[in-house]
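Table S2 (continued). Query chain:
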Amino acid sequence: MSAIDKRLKLELLQQQCNILVAEIEHIERICPHKWGPTVYAPVPTQDWVLDGYEGLGSDPVPFGHCIPGTPEPRWKRICLNCGKVECTYETMATERKPVF
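Corresponding output:
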């Protein structure tokens, strides 16, 4: 298969993909969402740790490695009708304490 054929095939697939995305967005817009349970789904993060510097003079190059960081809290829910996934990083204080 030549590069021209591959480009034409890619263009056709992109058009088909755009059509499918538009159809999914339409379905999600008109869906009377019935949300499933909220699930805690943290996002893994990485921290970079400096090990030292390479080179001499006025322009040393830092080097280091990555270690697992503190996961970023995230919650998600999925519509049981259309499969739409919503994620949030925000929380709301719901515990009420009496003030004396």
